[in-house]
Design goal:
The chain is mainly alpha-helical and 160 residues long. It has a domain at 31-129. Helices cover 46% and strands 0% of the residues. The longest helix is centred in the middle third of the chain and has 20 residues, at 76-95.
Length: 160
């Protein structure tokens, strides 16, 4: 058996072992939910003129969603379907000539964004998609410098 063949065989065995032992696993959260949301966003964004090639957009996000969502846990089917429906409603309203939530019956109660296209681009602004927003918990304040560093007050650049 040649060295190349033995190396290839060893590599295949290592990959097989890794796949069965979880060595090639992923911690990605909500891959399918991400794809559902992004597929809807691609279609809706076309109505806003921000996407010109919907199939290319959908292919891009199909792969990007392999990284999962920046969430601790999957949003689940119910939340995802509600979010997708809100994105689709926004896109349909834009197609019909609307530009604000007030002009869209399904989204007339929405607040927090001025235009439907803004909500399509940033779906976490929609109440049905608010689970997409990063946690609103504020980080702890930075430690107080005791004044021993060169930039103790944090404003040495301002005095130059």
């Amino acid at each position: 058996m040649s060295v190349l063949r033995r190396t290839a065989t060893a590599a295949m065995l290592a990959c097989a072992w890794a796949s069965f032992s979880g060595g090639c696993g992923t911690d990605a959260v909500g891959i399918d939910h991400c794809r559902d949301i992004e597929q809807a966003r691609c279609v809706a964004a076309a109505a806003c003129g921000t996407v010109t090639d919907v199939p290319a957009c959908q292919r891009f996000y199909r792969d990007q969603c392999l990284h999962g969502m920046a969430l601790d846990e999957s949003p689940g089917k119910v939340k995802t379907e509600a979010c997708v429906a809100a994105i689709e409603a926004a896109g349909n309203c834009v197609k019909a000539g609307g530009s604000t939530p007030a002009e869209c019956q399904e989204l007339s109660a929405e607040t927090g964004f001025p235009t439907l296209c803004e909500a399509i681009l940033e779906p976490q602004l929609l109440s049905a998609c608010n689970f997409l927003a990063p946690s609103q918990e504020s980080p702890p304040p930075p430690p107080v410098d005791s004044g021993t560093g060169a930039d103790a007050a944090g404003d040495s650049a301002a005095t130059d």
